[in-house]
Amino acid sequence: MDRIFIDDTLITGEDFRHVIKSQRHIVGDKLEVVLNEELYLAEISEVSKNSFSVKLLEKIEEDTNSIKIYLFQGYIPKKKMEHVFKMNGMLGVEKFIPTITERCYEKRIEDFSNDRCYSILKDSAEVSKSIKIPTVSNNMEFKEAIEFSKTLDYSVILFEDENVNCIYDFLKDVDVTYPREVSIGIFVGPEGGFSEEEVVFAKDRGVKSIRLFRNILRTEYAAFSAISSILTYYERTKYES
Question: Domain Ribosomal RNA small subunit methyltransferase E methyltransferase: where (predicted)?
Answer without folding.
Answer: 65-230
